[in-house]
Amino acid sequence: MHKLAIIGASGFTGAEFLRLCAAHPNFEVVIATGESQAHRPIADLYPNLASAYGNMVFTPHNDELISTIEASVDLVLMGLPHGHAQTLVPQLRGKVKHIIDLSADFRFNDPSVYPKWYGEAHQAPELLNEFVFGLPELFRDQLPGAELTAVAGCYVTTASLALAPLVKAGIVEPTGIIVDAASGVSGAGRPPKDNTSFCSVDEDFSAYGLLNHRHTPEIEMAISGYAGVDAQLLFTPHLAPMNRGILATCYGNLSDIGATTETALECIAEAYTDEPFVVVDQRSPSTKTTLGSNTVHLTARVDERTQTVIAIGALDNLVKGASGQGIQCANAVLGLPEHTGLPTAGLFP
Amino acid sequence: MHKLAIIGASGFTGAEFLRLCAAHPNFEVVIATGESQAHRPIADLYPNLASAYGNMVFTPHNDELISTIEASVDLVLMGLPHGHAQTLVPQLRGKVKHIIDLSADFRFNDPSVYPKWYGEAHQAPELLNEFVFGLPELFRDQLPGAELTAVAGCYVTTASLALAPLVKAGIVEPTGIIVDAASGVSGAGRPPKDNTSFCSVDEDFSAYGLLNHRHTPEIEMAISGYAGVDAQLLFTPHLAPMNRGILATCYGNLSDIGATTETALECIAEAYTDEPFVVVDQRSPSTKTTLGSNTVHLTARVDERTQTVIAIGALDNLVKGASGQGIQCANAVLGLPEHTGLPTAGLFP
Amino acid sequence: MHKLAIIGASGFTGAEFLRLCAAHPNFEVVIATGESQAHRPIADLYPNLASAYGNMVFTPHNDELISTIEASVDLVLMGLPHGHAQTLVPQLRGKVKHIIDLSADFRFNDPSVYPKWYGEAHQAPELLNEFVFGLPELFRDQLPGAELTAVAGCYVTTASLALAPLVKAGIVEPTGIIVDAASGVSGAGRPPKDNTSFCSVDEDFSAYGLLNHRHTPEIEMAISGYAGVDAQLLFTPHLAPMNRGILATCYGNLSDIGATTETALECIAEAYTDEPFVVVDQRSPSTKTTLGSNTVHLTARVDERTQTVIAIGALDNLVKGASGQGIQCANAVLGLPEHTGLPTAGLFP
Amino acid sequence: MHKLAIIGASGFTGAEFLRLCAAHPNFEVVIATGESQAHRPIADLYPNLASAYGNMVFTPHNDELISTIEASVDLVLMGLPHGHAQTLVPQLRGKVKHIIDLSADFRFNDPSVYPKWYGEAHQAPELLNEFVFGLPELFRDQLPGAELTAVAGCYVTTASLALAPLVKAGIVEPTGIIVDAASGVSGAGRPPKDNTSFCSVDEDFSAYGLLNHRHTPEIEMAISGYAGVDAQLLFTPHLAPMNRGILATCYGNLSDIGATTETALECIAEAYTDEPFVVVDQRSPSTKTTLGSNTVHLTARVDERTQTVIAIGALDNLVKGASGQGIQCANAVLGLPEHTGLPTAGLFP
Questions:
Q1: I want to staple B269 with a disulfide (CB 3.0 to 4.6 A). Which of A112, A219, B280, D34 is the partner?
Q2: Do B206 and A178 touch (CB under 8 A)?
Q3: Containing H/E element for D219?
């Protein structure tokens, strides 16, 4: 039984770590921190976890935290807001065998991405090259035994899994790609805001982050890294009136080598043979069928009329798009089968 | 006071005609037909209309209908499923001064569109050239006094109003356009189906009609007709878990003449100066803000990095996307101010 | 044309006043205040009002406000949070002919209600007897010409319209009544809170305000006042995952005079003969059919097995439950037909 | 590993059996029948199960079914529409060791309930006394080894778990009880209907089954059986715009022995000490916190003013209200710990 600490357990991805770990046969959560919710029972903030974590309280982020982790924990799962991991990882490093971070703080090797897309310089650029990028279906090799893992973002996982095999196969041109995606509201996190109140979102559909959403360079990096080309794309996210789920509808220019819908589907299916969490099919992927599971659904179409390839992916942003993928990475890091303790069947309806 | 008949009043667009006519100062509905609901009180199928149409029942589609219309009605509003107008319009023509049809049955001048996109030959191709296309902001000239009007479709109105000025101005290339759109469930009509049941749709987001949705040639026609070029585009609709609303996020290649976000917004704003139902703004359009109103919200962005223009439109698919636009057309046909009796303020929240 | 000021126009009930006034043939809004949103364009906070109030901004609550109102306004509509009207009404009184207040600040004649149910003593108890209670279908007589009107609350209107005729007729015993109700989220107001964020509310149903919700004494007062008996009841509100709508399912003990479902329905129907905003029917009332309208739907059943009467009411909490009823009261106060400018047909779907 | 057949696997409760069995360490589903969906891949109707049941198809209800079950199955889980089990159980009996039925077909010992509340006489009344009632927290004794189990209904489980301890303790009078409940739409089953289409339900709240819902006598039976008194109650269900979840808000007259909120809560908490699936707390139960789990949340309040006790329960109608409870019963029947393979942590948000 591996002992785990969850740093940032009061946010949605932290709480999802707690939910998933409760069903994991090899994981025991011994610490769950929550700065704004310190000392509050987990069951009070998340009554859904009352049965599983009845008496546990959120631990504060104080001076003792690092030494407690060092004394009692094998692996740390982190679900903090952007920027916080940059200061915490340097403190934790060396005190615990493995750190799995869900934030974007260590996803890029190139420190220049941070001022350009995140608005400020990185606080620990010397660590960027130490991190493994956590998207197992595309980049699995370096995960076993990794000390530091930066898990891929939710939009990034959806779009990259759909597009990367097609770009690598040369079916889709690496530039001129459009990624048009929609997310459920949980992607915006737990703290209440004007634009995520029920009365703002319910019965609404609208785009946000026009032109400059932070996941843009990460999708480009993931596809480029897998396909060995320089991908460039325009990414437009939308907010959909639902709790969870991401659908990415991706458009690329059909290359000169050509393809049909059948060959495009085969290309994707072959890339993910034997993957326990990937379903490739003719069906149009639906976010709802992935609810609560670590499964991603993919499809593709080739439009001869406009010489365009459509690739579509759907997943649960808090599971395969965050905490589930984090645990998949933890499994890989620890040498467990990747699917250990992770649900593949979605909750429907 | 103009006397109106609503043919197909038991469907969602027909019921919306009833709702809007109840508040129209110059319209009196004297007949409301409903084949499957004949003789049933309107208030029984649509309790929302109980106060306004307390004792009225749906009239059957029998032999007397045409003569009753001839005797008592100035203008017919039609909200029938695809194909039905093709047989009814030849019977009605000459018996009533004005017909406003919401279906796609008479939107195209070119009869070859029907077998290609709608799966069967047109039943009355000789009438196709007699119809005026009902999208007043783009094609207003022929509406006053028109005998036959084919109102533009919901997706078509949204995408065309956003794109047409930019293509006409030469800012957006006429080919290589992507229209990625999402619709509320009311667009699928009233009869219950597997894919529009609450448990199928709620908390789900997915694409449908991949590659071959019927609105594709109509959007191309509207933009081409307004801009005077041959537009070609790929259209992908999605189903969003909400009652009403369409958002179209449109991507086009920035042309050599170039543009900035500011000039693109100015281009659209100028095209719709003094239009009572068009709001052009920097804000990202939201379907929710259009609920129940005949208003469309538009914006645009220019991405220098990828040389792409984004144009976004939002409207209520049953109002500006159907019955409200039908009444706007009826107003124009009858010489009334176009905004007569139509709400411009949306219901929020 | 009457000139109006809306005080508290940035909240949901204030914004609904703006929406409804935009379609009112006799009302012109000349001032709309919003303390937290002062100087911000209305269209920026409420894009749904962009077409109707294009360039208008929220006016601050400063020293000039009272004199501006005195100089330019016939009637003031107030939609402030609880407690604010207690300080503002004394300042406004005498400066404007009519004040219509949506808050609970002046609904009770008995000042002891305030410390008991609202937690603090009233600031202007001498004014309590000056206010007319604004629930026209039950208490219409004093409205014409009234200087000060306190509009009934949303739950109060729903439950009282359903129960009052049955209690007055002696069919339902005045004590032992249960009012079990559900409301859409807009009832909680615009500012974002933990318990009204989308991710808290969507797909959830739960009770709140157990035992001590503030509307309890007001429902008792309305029924008692209309029926001429001392009613006592237990009220339990629930939060439902929808924007608008209140449904009140009320249970009362069948009295010794007895009744059947038919006679109970007749009793209610007779009480509201010729009311433009009340629909009494065998159908189970649905909140959705009232959306955006000032209409209330009512039904009743008598259960012989348990000797219980069920009375059910449904309405839109922001219209008949707040701003629409406020305008209905304003119409009555000003001598206009009560239904002037108010929608009776709900938006469906 | 126990071999299971799921009869009626194409409905929502059958599909939920499939989802839960996929994560159960001791269960292997070898047959899943679906009459209307025979020979169709499970993954085609339920893409959420694609990862877990990739190649399995729905088996038809033909002559071979019984002999196949006899040859290969230890336990049958049944999720058929009302009435079907009455003809199937007599055929299956003796061919398989254990049958767990989710329908109401064998819940009552008294055959007269069926014509009165279900509208027709029972087809196999001689079997009624052979069935054990499957609500483990109240009636656990007879489950181990039981051949035939009739699992309690969804509303019944919610209301009975909340009320039964209070009635048994004499705190709540056994007559004059009101059960006011709300359910998500999945309770109405998979086939599309007018009243469960998205556009009917979304943004709506309404009551149904007024006075005569079939769960009424079953709630009375469960409370009476546990408390040893004759309970009588009026039950009113409502439909809420959400996929899953039942909340029952129950009102009872406080008895002469009296109680406070504290003693009422203690009474319930003591009744369920050590139950893995019951959470008793001061918090108002929320359906959302139970999503996907077999957990029920309970609370209570005593209102001295009206001498009324409120008891509230919340659960997931497809898990603790149906298939999860069915598996809990199967565990008990087979001698496994009741919580084996069942999730206790709900999915949030």
A1: B280
A2: no
A3: helix D215-227
% chain D with pLDDT above 90: 98
Mean pLDDT estimate for chain C: 97
| Candidates A190, A194, A202; nearest CB to C202 | A202
Across the B:D interface, residue pairs with CB atoms under 8 Å apart total 56
Measured CA angle at C207 (ends C202, C212), to 5 deg: 140
User: What is the model's pLDDT at position B54?
Assistant: 84
- Is the CB of residue B318 less than 8 Å from the CB of residue B16? yes
Integer Cα distance of B239 and B291 in angstroms: 17
**Integer Cα distance of B124 and B105 in angstroms:** 9
Buried b (16+ CB within 10 A) or exposed e, C311-325: bbbbbbbbbbbbbbb
CB contact A205 to C (< 8 Å): no
Place of tokens 């206790």: D344
Under 8 Å between Cβ of B341 and B20: yes
Give the pLDDT confidence score for residue D62 in this predicted structure: 87
Check pLDDT > 90 for residue D63: no
C231: closest chain D residue by CA: D306
Alpha carbon of A287: minimum distance to chain B alpha carbons (Å): 5
Query: Hey, of B198, B201, B204, B239, which one would you mutate to test binding to chain D, going by the most D CBs within 10 A of its CB?
Result: B198
| pLDDT, tens digit, 9 for 90 and up, residues C47-91 | 999 999 988 999 999 889 999 999 999 999 999 999 999 999 999
Q: How far does D72 lie from chain C, in Å, by closest CA?
A: 40
Q: Are D101 and D94 in contact (CB under 8 A)?
A: no
Estimate to the nearest angstrom the gap between the alpha carbon of B292 and the chain centroid.
14
Q: How many whole angstroms separate alpha carbon D242 and alpha carbon B20? A: 29
Edge-first strand listing for the sheet containing B233-239: B206-207, B233-239, B177-183, B246-253, B308-315, B296-303, B278-280
Strand order in the sheet with A2-7: A27-32, A2-7, A75-78, A98-101, A148-151, A132-134
Q: 3-class DSSP state for residue D124?
A: coil
- Give the burial string for C91-103 (b: 16+ CB within 10 Å, else e): ebeeebebbbbbb
Interface ipTM: 0.97
Do the bridges between strand B2-7 and strand B75-78 make them parallel or antiparallel, or are there none, so unpaired? parallel
3-state helix, strand and coil shares in percent for chain D, rounded to the nearest 5: 35, 25, 45
Judge whether B103 and B81 are in contact, CB under 8 Å.
Answer: yes
Phi, psi of B64 (to 5 degrees): -80, -15
**Measured CA angle at A160 (ends A158, A164), to 5 deg:** 140
Residue with tokens 């029947």: D333
Tokens of B146: 């028109």
**Would you call C339 an interface residue with chain D, using a CB distance cutoff of 8 Å?**
no
Closest CA of chain A from B306, distance in Å: 7
Helix (H, G, I), strand (E, B) or coil at C126: helix
Kindly report the pTM of this predicted structure.
Answer: 0.97
Contacts of B22 in chain C (CB under 8 A): 344-345
With an 8 Å Cβ cutoff, is C242 touching chain D? yes
Residue C154 annotated as catalytic: yes
Flag whether residue A182 sits within 8 Å of chain B, measured between CB atoms.
Answer: yes
Q: Does D272 touch chain A (CB under 8 A)?
A: no
pLDDT tens profile B214-235: 999 999 999 999 999 999 999 9
Q: Where are the beta strands (DSSP E) in C164-295?
A: 177-183, 206-207, 233-239, 246-253, 278-280
